[in-house]
Amino acid sequence: MNIYQLVFITAQDTEEAQKKITECVTTEKGEVIHTEKWGKKDFAYPIKKNPSGYYFEWHITMDKGKIPVFKKKMDSDENVLRYLLIKSNIKNKR
To answer: Residue 30 belongs to what domain range?
Structure first.
């Protein structure tokens, strides 16, 4: 399993939005190992008609082969405005 850094912006700061993304990770046999909330920030221009969003940084583990399916789920989640998923060189932060 590889460790990935996932930074995403949601339209709403709700437990439901974060739970849905956690389910996307665990459905693909991954695990959320670290979460950090960066807070609400205003955008330079509206994204999907939203003037601001809530930023999060997570570290997750997932098999390389599961990434395309995970990305499709993130793309289809209407609460996720933007996301960035990159392979991380960090060690497990438990």
So the answer is: 2-78
Residue 72 has pLDDT above 80, yes or no: yes
Specify the pTM.
0.87
| Cβ–Cβ < 8 Å for 2, 90 | no
Label each residue of the chain as H, E or C: CEEEEEEEEECCCCHHHHHHHHHHHHHCCCEEEEEEEEEEEEEEEEECCEEEEEEEEEEEEECHHHHHHHHHHHHHCCCEEEEEEEECCCCCCC
Q: Is residue 44 part of a domain?
A: yes
The torsion angles phi and psi of 15, rounded to 5 degrees, stand at: -65, -35
84 domain residue, yes or no: no
